[in-house]
Amino acid sequence: MSRRNGFSGFPGGGGANMQQLLKQAQKMQQQMTDMSAQLDNAEFEATSGGGMVTVKIAGTHEVKSITINPQVVDPEDVEMLQDLIIAAFNEAIRKCTETREQSMNSLAPGMGGFGGLL
Fold first, then answer.
1. In degrees rounded to 5, what are phi and psi of residue 43?
2. Which long-range contacts (CB under 8 A, 24 or more apart) does 41-48 make?
3. In this predicted model, what pLDDT tens digit does every residue of 66-110 receive, in sequence order?
4. Which of 39, 40, 69, 109 is buried most deeply by CB count within 10 Å?
5. pLDDT digits (tens, 9 = 90+) for 2-17
């Protein structure tokens, strides 16, 4: 096996290609940092019960607001209200997580989101 420029397995390799690869990695890291900050500041909203309960969360999963239509408040059926709140929260979190994964994967297509680390 021949060794060119001291790097076997890197055709035409050497310092120039490694520098370019490092620059690309640094650029991707900056893009990921920027996108992560944008997603942290984004708001995700979900409703349940045909709009009776609305939940808004930040990209950090921090709850921003909960809106409950007074029509759904029934002292005889608190469980239904609890279920609607849970459903709205779960949907908001799902939207947030899905958006984050899609956004990060778009920066590194074919890398599978860095093995699920994002």
1. -115, 140
2. 42/96, 42/99, 44/92, 44/93, 44/95, 44/96, 44/99, 45/92, 46/88, 46/89, 46/90, 46/91, 46/92, 46/94, 46/95, 47/88, 47/91, 48/84, 48/85, 48/87, 48/88, 48/91
3. 999 999 999 999 999 999 999 999 999 999 999 989 988 887 765
4. 39
5. 445 444 455 555 677 9
pTM of the model: 0.67
Q: Which amino acid would we find at residue 86?
A: I
- Residue labelled with tokens 């390799």: 13
Question: Which tokens hold the place of 68?
Answer: 């409950």
Joined together, the tokens standing for residue 32 give: 């990921």
